[in-house]
Automatic annotation (TrEMBL):
The lineage of its organism: Eukaryota, Metazoa, Porifera, Demospongiae, Heteroscleromorpha. Pfam families: Ldh_2 (PF02615). Belongs to the LDH2/MDH2 oxidoreductase family. It comes from the Eukaryota. One of its GO terms (molecular function) is oxidoreductase activity. It comes from Geodia barretti (Barrett's horny sponge). Gene3D superfamilies: Hypothetical oxidoreductase yiak, domain 2. This is L-lactate dehydrogenase. SUPFAM superfamilies: L-sulfolactate dehydrogenase-like. The keyword Isomerase does not apply. Keywords: Oxidoreductase.
Length: 220
């Protein structure tokens, strides 16, 4: 089976500006796809249609680091690397992915919002504000209904081998298919544990104290 999934935010989290706009109208509107491949780990794509997920902006804020160029605009529509512009009043906004071709990320975000919101009945982004939850669109494709499974797997394996055979840029150890980097990180975290930012840990402890829960000791 091949799985394709899109998610909007019921009109909440309007922190992504439309292409040509300077204020948030869209969520980060992620999409995901999983494709099984015999003899290999599955291909796994999980991405936002904005240049970056909002959580990565929050991580940089906790670290007191600036945003890379091309992530954000301030409330006046000016490019900015100041994270606080994103959280200002009025707030700035994330940009759709694509850089100088951001109309492509914007177009994909519109499709995600319609599939997840209008088609599901949950609703697209709107002026009414946010609701708790997400609108979701899920498609499951039975590969065998279209092509023989052995032919499909042979073609995908051939395709991946061909992609990976491309000459690499200096310093690049390997060309990774979607999902490979994440699996490498999973293996590393399984061995070494999950690092938690100090500021994040402080917030976790604050919530646990509020609800009188025991605070565990760090493993390392």
């Amino acid at each position: 089976m091949i799985g394709i999934l899109t998610v909007n935010d019921h009109g909440g989290g309007q922190n992504v500006a439309p292409y040509g706009g300077i204020e948030g109208r869209l969520s980060t509107n992620p999409l995901a796809c999983a494709i099984p491949v015999e003899g290999r780990e599955p291909i796994l794509l999980d991405m936002s249609t904005s240049v970056v997920a909002a959580g990565k902006v929050r991580v940089r804020r906790h670290r007191k680091e600036p945003a890379p160029e091309g992530w954000l605009i301030d409330a006046a529509g000016n490019p900015t690397t100041n994270i606080e512009d994103f959280y200002g009043s009025p707030p700035g906004a994330l940009l759709p992915f694509g850089g100088i071709a951001a109309q492509k990320g914007f177009g994909l975000s519109i499709v995600v919002d319609i599939l997840s919101g209008a088609l599901s009945g949950a609703g697209c982004t709107s002026q009414e504000g946010s609701r708790v939850g997400n609108g979701v669109f899920i498609t499951v494709i039975n590969i065998a209904s279209f092509v023989d499974l052995s032919d499909f797997n042979a073609e995908i394996n051939r395709f991946i081998d061909y992609i990976k055979s491309a000459k690499r840029s200096p310093g690049v150890e390997a060309i990774r298919i979607p999902g490979e980097r994440g699996r490498g990180e999973q293996e590393k975290r399984t061995r070494e544990g999950i690092f938690v930012e100090e500021s994040t840990w402080d917030q976790i402890q604050e919530v646990m104290r509020k609800y009188q829960l025991p605070i565990p000791d760090p493993l390392i």
